[in-house]
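Researcher: Next entry: Copper homeostasis protein cutC homolog (Streptomyces cellulosae).
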Amino acid sequence: MSKRAVLEVIALDVEDAVAAQAGGADRLELVTDMAADGLTPPVGTFARIRASVDIALRVMLRLSDGFAAADVEPLVRVAGELREAGAEEFVLGFLDGDGGVDLAAVERVVGVLDGCRWTFHRAIDRAADRDTLRKQLDGLPGLDAYLTAGSAAGVDAGLPTLLHEAELAGEPGYEQRLLVGGGLRLDHVPRLMAAGIDAFHIGGAARPGGWERGVSAAAVAEWRGVLDGA
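Model: Predicted structure:
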């Protein structure tokens, strides 16, 4: 039997989370402030969502717009608070001014996660050298996925990169799962799945009414049906 593809949905609040689970999401990415591309939600928001759904939750660790870590210590503190509240999976990623991975910042934050699983987010799509970034992060505890569109411009532009990286699966720096998101559409799915990609991330696609409206269980269910039927 083939393994079910992972469907991750962005959730901002309890209502989003409940609708996403009802539609068939496997996992949620918890964020606040999508105007800044998603920041760390309050610990209380995490706790309320955790009490409302029983699927996996990955919590964003990012306190300001952009991909620089800035002062990493406040982020370390909030990561610790989230761990104390029961968070077990995270999303993070920092670049330096030259577009390389800020390894010191990543290692500092990962060091307080106690081996929890985490995704390196779309900072990889702004990196000066994706391959170098992957190899520098290789072996960090808990890293199991890269959220990527293959390009800062989205999946349409990044599709060749995604297909190439799928071919490298299992090689050093490429052991982690490709979690595709960023301008992802349903018509992209068959080609991506044919290449062996089995994890997909949606935000706006789960909200036909736009970001000012909540997640639609029906929209999530449509994605679930396509992934299960592909």
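Model: Note for the record: The mean pLDDT is 95.
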